[in-house]
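Researcher: I'm preparing a figure for a lab meeting and need a structural model of a single chain. I don't have an experimental structure, so a prediction will have to do for now. The sequence is pasted below. Please return the structure as tokens so I can convert it later.
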Amino acid sequence: MAPDSFTVSLTGNEVSLSPEEIERELSSMWKPLDEAEGASIARMVLANVIWLGSSADLPRAQRIIQKVVPRYPCRLFLLEFNEKEEGTTPRANVSAQCFRPRVGEVPVCCELIHLTFGPKSARHIRGSVSPLLLGDIQTILWLSLADENFSHLGDLQGMVDRTIAMEMRSPSPAEHLRRCVSGEHPTFDLSWFRIMPLREQIAAFFDDSANNFDLQGIKSVRLTVTSQCTFPQLPLFVAGLLTGWFGSRLGWVPKGGNIKGYRYEAGDRVLTVSLAECDEKVSKGLSGFRGLEMEDTEGRVFHLTLSPEDSQLTLRILRDDVVEASRITNVREMRGWESLGRALNAPPPAQYFRRAANLAIPLLEHYCP
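Model: Understood. Here is the structure written out token by token.
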């Protein structure tokens, strides 16, 4: 049974910038919660999680957070940047996000600290957040790229262990990936976790020796994405990361592209990744991804198709249109909260994402100049 999640807020009174006063307000918050529930409340914190975004992005972030928190209790900071804020100090508000693991059980609650900044008060971000971070646990920054030019971003990254960025808000997917992998700080994109179900199912298919597909002998790759998407860059971004994941494992080296597609080399073999748009009337699918086709040097063809209607993932190996191996599984579309939950709970080593991203960047530049 899904956790029963609910938000318990204070009266909405704003508290001052003083970290000491915010801490006192957080402490005083638990007494009325205990009294309302008639039993003690479990307080659980697995990490400090900081969200930075604009006022326009806040409602979406709050919807995602409401579903993530029951699975990943944290001390949560919402850093809202509002260009219309004229004050020289940020406004603050605290509340609790609570959930019941099962009906009738004691609620588990974590704390939410909402700070609103404007152009004149943004310089206080580090001083506002740093004293409130809980020690001995990791700190994760969830960054909305709508604020990619935010001048105080460096102040935050110096305090966090890793950053989760969002591809949807980037007008240039290649440039966004380049920023993600340019520094030593571990930074991932949410799409890397969005396509985890695809990567896991594909890897499981190839790990089965009975399928006997020559991955090292791939000579062509063709990707299909939907052309109808709220954010047109997203399906290309997903296709690029999926290609980069393959290429990083198989030793592909980017070599440039032409009208026929983007070229990679692996030893004496040339691999071309071509991108085909599907029917514009079809708008569903895992982030716009619809399918992938690869052919090896022995003439075998690997087909992966994703049915948007029932999330059915079909993997087949064919030779002369005769099916040699097949597997059908269900892969749910990775919603924002599912992707973020994976990113918080089980981050892979940063080098895996960087390798895939570095191979995806030139492909995205070819298709999205």
